[in-house]
## 1
Amino acid sequence: MNTKQVQLDDLQRKILADKVCPELAKQATQLVFGTGNSQAQIVSIGEAPGKNEDIKGEPFVGEAGKFLNEMLEMMGKKRADVYITNIVKYRPTENRDPLPEEKSAFLPYLEKQLDISAPKLIVTLGRHSMDVLLPGLIIGSVHGKVQQYKSSKLLPFYHPAAAMYNRSLKQVLIEDFLTLQILLETI
Ligand code: URA
């Protein structure tokens, strides 16, 4: 196993040992830490697990995940080529938005996860993950525009779940994925 994966496994155990968000943990089936290639150039970050993710223990395996897979395939990538995670790592009840205190509680672990992965590019999916890493940006203005987060480039995207059933937003997301494809050729 590669060193990054070993460190990520340690971090996953630390979240459990530190008892992060015990109330959220109590009602969730399991911790949903992250999946994919720990050595990947791209790390995608969503919001929090939903029902399917909670059951499977893997981020983005439901409808939004299928859509994300399609977007990746469109640019010639597979899920296994990227690393996928969320800010909040337990499913919030009834798919509500994660609370500010839940995002803050998980932020140090997400930061550590990114320090370990050290990707060339971070893709935030939706405003929540963008906002924890780069507070104050407006998704409507900055989506698909390259930002900087520590030593990684960061591309903010709309959330696939929001774009799935909204034709114009879907088109925007497709165009942003094409921007990502071009960017990957230059970094
Ligand atoms: N939406 C997210 O933000 N994350 C998931 O893992 C699934 C759906």
## 2
Amino acid sequence: MKIAWYLPTLPSVKWQIAKQLGVDYAVAALPPERYYMKPWDFKAMLYAKQSLADAGLKLEVIEPAPPHYHIKLGLPGRDQEIEIFKNVLRNMAALDIPVLCYNFMPQSGWYRTSFSKKGRGGALVTCFDNSLVEKAPLLTEAGCLDDEQIWDNYKYFMDRVLPVAEECKVKLALHPDDPPIPSLQGIARIFRSAENMDRAMQLFPSDYNGITLCQGTFAAMGENIPQVIEYFGSRGKIFFVHFRDIRGTASCFEETFHDEGMTDMKACIEAYRKVGFDGIVRTDHAPIMAGEGGDNPAYEMLGHIFATGYLKGLLEERDRHRNNYNK
Ligand code: CS2
Ligand code: MN
């Protein structure tokens, strides 16, 4: 497994910290729009990749995908967004960036009801409580959309984008809906169970259609994570891993430090070994620790430094076992 950090595409102290931790791979969003360049222009993506490379960091995953508001809601304008999506895939092929992590959460993205709950030692964690949003107004101009409508929008999108991903040999890594609840402010969230994630794999069987195994989100679904890893991993469907944990259920949970959540992390690492996963893993959401500003919840630095050390320890332990088996 190759450890990456989620990094900005402009020089940042995070680049140096990542290198100091021994991290050589990067996951990044498309660069911000500037100098008349759109984030998805070839030149903008080239600069992003090369700037990271100059700092010794290999850009391996783009996350999240370019704008797909209209695609997800099935609104006019989705065809233009699909064209941009295809251009991103073509640019990734030209730049040798193998994985695109996208999700199908219309508008809201990941959703929390607080970013400042007190966790271990007073560190601030994000949390979600569905009872606080049950009476919230509809989320978008599209009104209420049920499961079937979102599945239709997903199919419309995949019918057009997957063939280009295949042609470009870029892997599409679907991130589950976070939180994985049936619907939020009137919009269905279809990727809320391992079963539905699997359905997406069955609907579009392809070496370029796979998942982002976001451990925290699958944990909120109530799934057994090592089993999920074995299921998708043995089918070659894990393209990218988010290493994180929570405590609770889909409708009410809080995030935790990586070593204190409800998942058996050691068993997860063992499961990745068993299925031979050798792709990119990045630390996902970490608590805000003492002294940190807190304007970047889940993505401040100290918690990610801790998570990286913990992950490295688990991997080392796994390798020690593997070497013993091989003797
Ligand atoms: C995440 C997201 O919710 C999650 O599990 O992985 O925070 C993700 O990092 C952002 O949406 C950017 O892709
Ligand atoms: Mn995630």
